[in-house]
C-alpha cells in the first residue's frame, strides 16, 4: 500500500506501525521515537490526519496524562477504547 501524506506524517505513521498490539505510547514518546522530541503536538495532528486507521494503529497512542486523546477512525474515541481493550492494552 502506497501511503499518501506529508513527509512528517509518513514518518509518524511508519513509527506507529512499530507499536505492538497491546502496547501504548504517548504522543511525546512517539515524538522522541522519531527523533523530534518537541513535536508531540504535531504527532497528535499526524495521528488525527491518519486515513489508514486502524491498519496504521494510531489508536495505540495516548496522552501523557493517560487520557485517550482523539481517534480519527470511524467511531471516534469509543472505538479507540474498544480497540485498546480488545488488545488488552494497559489503559
Show unreliable segments: none
Number of strands: 2
Portion of residues in beta strands equals under 5%
Q: Which range best describes the helical content: under 10%, 10-25%, 25-40%, 40-55%, 55-70% or over 70%?
A: 40-55%
Question: How many separate structural domains?
Answer: 1
Order of helices and strands: HEHHEH
What's the gyration radius in Å?
Answer: 12 Å
Mean pLDDT, nearest integer?
Answer: 95
Main-sheet strand order equals 1-2
Shape: globular
Largest sheet: 2 strands, parallel
* Cα end-to-end separation: 30 Å
User: CATH homologous superfamily - what is it?
Assistant: Winged helix-like DNA-binding domain superfamily/Winged helix DNA-binding domain
CATH class: Mainly Alpha
CATH architecture: Orthogonal Bundle
